[in-house]
Amino acid sequence: MSYRTVVIQSKCKLKYHNNYLVVRGEKLNRIHIDEIGLLLIDSTQVVITTMLINELIKKKVKIVFCNEKRNPAGELIPLYGGYNNTKKINIQINWLEDTKETLWQLIVQRKILMQAKLLEKMGCSEYTVLLEYAKDVKKGDVSNREGHAAKVYFNSLFPENFKRFNNDNINAALNYGYSILASYINREIISFGYLTQLGIKHRNEFNNFNLTYDLIEPLRTIVDEYVIKNIDRDLTSDYKMELVNLLNKKVKIKNQEHYLTNAITIYLTSVFDYLENNGKTKIIFIDLNE
Predict the structure, then answer these.
(1) In angstroms, what CA-CA distances link 120 with 19, 117, 128, 148?
(2) Cα separation of 145 and 109, whole Å?
(3) Spans of the chain, pLDDT less than 70
């Protein structure tokens, strides 16, 4: 099943009625809450009732708020995501350090391989360099192959004058796409009963989403591919909607096609099984479509 991503872009009031999200603006629209996975409020002129917020939280719907520049600024996170949160948090705290380091090795390897695959797809010969980096990733990525690969990857994929984190349209599109992916991963982590704050490699005390930014790494190329194919576009409302709609993109996982939302659930399930079983199970990664 693919849950809908609902984007609210204009002045309106959002309220709850009989298990429906009611959008009262120029027109009246109703959406069944059970169909929604993510609600993106892309306007500061939206009024939302606390009853609707409460019901959305009960259904584990992720709610993301945008600022006056229409960029994601914050999200609502339920205090309790599962029926056995205490048990899951205790398990999370006690994940073995060795298992986490091996998992990070696998995640970084997969991230670099996905980057290499995209470079090859886009006709960049430097993909062979990344294949060598992927082979050289050590446990915990102590030699920082991730960082070395990123430099080659961004220099090869994007224009010569591109620099990551500059204030330009390319970076704006990348950041927007990544934030949408991160919000959905947050939703899933919480629904499993774990804390987004407790990461594997990311352990910044000021970051509430350390675990999210561990697990997002092999998925970033999904956004990168779309952005490079739309390299000359400004980040308009239509472009943002297309980036949001990547959640409904078909991807490959377990040699089958799934919507990205479903594939993320499969991927995260395998990650948490791996951690809970001390590395004795297999990580199921998402692949790019040909």
Answers:
(1) 47, 5, 8, 18
(2) 9
(3) 1-3, 80-83, 289-290
- One of 1.25.10.10, 3.10.290.10, 3.30.420.40, 3.100.10.20 is the CATH number of 4-76, namely 3.100.10.20
CATH architecture, domain defined by 85-276: Up-down Bundle (1.20)
Q: What is the pLDDT, as a whole number, of residue 289?
A: 65
Rounded mean pLDDT of the chain? 92
Domain with CATH 3.100.10.20 in the chain: 4-76
| DSSP H or E segment with residue 212 | helix 210-215
- How far from each other are the two terminal CA atoms of the chain, in whole angstroms? 23
Distance CA 124, CA 117 (A): 10
Residue 73 CA to residue 12 CA, distance in Å, equals 19
| Model pTM score | 0.86
Give me the pLDDT at residue 146, please: 96
Intervals of CATH 1.20.120.920 along the chain: 85-276
Q: What is the pLDDT of residue 82?
A: 66
